Amino acid sequence: QVQLVESGGGLVQAGASLRLSCAASGRTFSIYAMGWFRQAPGKEREFAAAISRSGGRTYYADSVKGRFTISRDNAKNTVYLQMSSLKPEDTAVYYCAAARNPLLTAQAMGDLLRYDYWGQGTQVTVSS
Length: 128
Known about the structure:
four-stranded antiparallel beta sheet; 11 strands
């Protein structure tokens, strides 16, 4: 099993930046792609960003492209989401996810059903 723990959420004003972290423990050698998803109140969970095992491939939702950057440090078993120019519509619970299998296409990386492990989430609130 793999455990994922997110941190770094909080309340910020529009235009600010935040960095989320997700620390993985357990059978981390089994992890391939990792991703960040988010869920706003009353809405379905949606894809935000994903990164391949090596970090060589990244994929972003159009809504965050150019503002968010995903990265990972495999030595620390940690994935990050640097969020800049935050908007009120970015307000959501942000979830970290990990996949047991390689996700070879952008479509696969953006599909929450392809991920096997999930964290508990961290709240990000952006005020206007």
